[in-house]
Amino acid sequence: MLAYILRRILASIPVMIVVALFIFLLLRLTPGDPAAIIAGDMATPAQLAEIRRNLGLDQPLLTQFVTWSGQLLTGDFGQSLISRTPVLTLIGQRLEPTLSLAIVSMIMTLILSIPMGVLAAWRHRSLTDSAVMAISVLGFSIPIFVTGYILIQVFAIDLKLFPVQGFTSISEGIGPFLQRIFLPALALATIYIALIARMTRAAMLNVLGEDYIRTARAKGLSERIVLFRHALRNAAVPILTVIGTGFALMISGVVVTESVFNVPGLGRLTVDAILARDYPVIQALILLTSGIYVAVNLLIDVSYAFMDPRIRY
Amino acid sequence: MAGDTRNGTPQAAPDGAPAHTLVISDLVVETRGREPRRILDGVSLHVAPGETVCLVGESGSGKSVSSLATMGLLPKDALTVRSGVIEVEGEDVLSASPKRLRQLRATRMSMIFQEPMTALNPVLSIEKQLDEVLDAHSAATGTERRKRIRDILELVRLPDIERMCRSFPHQLSGGQRQRVMIAMALILEPKLLIADEPTTALDVTTQKAILELVADIQKRLGTSVLFITHDMGVVADIADRVYVMRHGRIVEDGPIGSILREPKKDYTRDLLASVPALSPRPARPATSAEIVLQTSQLTMVYGRPSFFRKGEGTVAAKDIDLVLKRGRTLGIVGESGSGKSTVARCVMRLLDPTGGSIRLRNREIADVSRRALRPHRKRMQMIFQDPNRSLNPRLTVGESIIEGPINYGVDPDSARNKARSLLETVGLPADAIDRHPHQFSGGQRQRIAIARALALEPDLLVADEAVSALDVSVQAQVLDLLDDLQARLGVALLFITHDLRVAAQICDEVAVMQKGRIVECGPTGEVLGNPAEAYTRQLIDAAPGRFWDFPNFRPLAGAHEPSRQDVMVEPAR
Questions:
Q1: Which residues contact B142 (CB under 8 A, 6 or more apart)?
Q2: Which of A135, A170, A193, B116 could cross-link to B178 by cystine, CB 3.0-4.6 Å?
């Protein structure tokens, strides 16, 4: 098991290198010049060249890449081209809102989607099943910003149950924190809930046809135990897989949600950095999210072994 | 326990206790939907305390539906009970509430199933799966429960009980899993045990042990057993009384002795007459000296040590020497895991053998490349066990049959004409060519699979358990067909089977495999008639119903081994 984890971590190194190279080149190849943005509309060509030289942007691409990756290896992510703040400081400041949003959103997803999927499979072809499938299709098809604005209109403006936007740190008390994060987390969770409820239903339908479910019923066990102990654990592997791959949805959802609800998190930082062509910040953010994606999926692969004793690494 | 016994039920004995453990009367089960189809049409049967009743019939006759209805386990969205009564110890189970039904399961009535591989939950430990029965139905404390689990595992004679408790199903053998199933079913000592083909998926030796175990526990606990099977051999060995089912009705019933000796209905007679005899058929004269297949020192090792893998690897087949001549049938028999299928797959080069030689019509094919193998592929064809899965459901029968010839350059029109005549050869109408596999029965599908294999005019047919999934009457027809085709086409047949009865009836020579090696090989009459090796003897002894001559409705001459036959002429208890 440990050897497997170690091997997987080693295998993710080339992945990260490819990601780093890819972002670096992609950014340099997109039109837009950070020096021009910093200098403003009235800058002379000489001023622009001066700024470029200061930022190291006049060096050949290869030199720039080697410098950047060399710094990365020492843990130095560079500093923002615009604000001259170290990138890590910028990210650190914005980490809490995003992390809170992702975690609360994930908890909501699991609490809602898995029972929904189990119920739909148990009551296959019933009204409940159709309702769950309908919610799931809606959740998929409505973009996050639409869901977000509808939630704001209904729950914040009309019913006045929640604040319209913004973020309150958890250090200011769990009540205010939850009150502010509820709507954005729900908006972010919808698509994920739709995906996982659907997957849970499909996986459960498969498993409920298995012989051992009949055995469990023949033993006189209650339906609750049959569904959750016998069926759900066997359906766990495909569900976990989707939780892992669907994590990419959440990362992209964060960017939109933070804009809609005006949450000062990494998503907003990403948008701002892209608009300003702030290369070091964009590079660091994409590397960070790729790293998280790889780590989440490694975690999920490892968790298979805990769900199914037949899987050994 | 007896609190729910109803007075006034017709079966109630004077003291108020029911005379029968299970009574099913006039049970009608239909499919759901607009046009309901009758699956059970007025089935009535009963099982007395301590009695073993066998319910026999071919697939689709309604045996399993009867048992599932008793347990209240009919698939709700597909089947529904239209009318009739089912009483377990006098209590009506059809009108019982879902809660009451759950209480009755495992305490009054239990069930064991056919596939011990799939009937246990793969992700829960054995102890957990036993414990939850106690947890659901009794107030026993943790210590008591642990003790009862260990007691019952000992009763079903499982070794190393502590390790067994911690194990998961995939770590046990098929026989061990079925013992766990039995332990699970009997841990609360129910009065009724329903066994639905519990030994069909097991080897004969394991089957014998499980049957003995069930009989032994039954004697100790006084359990009534309703045993569902299609195997008349098993019936002859264990039954007190027999019900014969067909098309959802009981055709005939009676004590085992009268069913085997004096079957009254034609269907029962046919069923018994289709049981292949265990005594080998007379040897056939050799027709040709041409050797079609010869293997020498054929060896297959899985997971051989490599740069990434330490250890010895698993030897699936070692030093296999076989010779098969034109027009002859060579059987490979043995238990599961003995390596018979591995040999078949190596011969077909579906697996790449790790050593030895395979000569097909005197050409070496063991180590030639995939490309060089291509011309040889059409010389050998395979028939698989399960015709439901070996035919592509999306292709028409014709498309499946002509695919091979077209690959080898035959033009489509003549391939289709050939396919039509092949379908007639295997006993199907020529218009079957445009239909899909799901429109045929299991036996017909196996005929299609045979036609497909013959389309390339092979010299060698490899049949891997080709009749094992078929009912006995269909099995007999397919065996006749293979025999007939062989006489006409002179094809050599390598016939893999675990069923000694089938081997005795179709093979000219037989090789007995155990643990990847051939322990005995020779003419069928000698190997099965007068085995030299203890292992072969053991296999033959384990064959169910070996003292009974089914087609002639009498015990085999010279059979004097003490068995149920001696008991069963007496009236049932």
A1: none
A2: B116
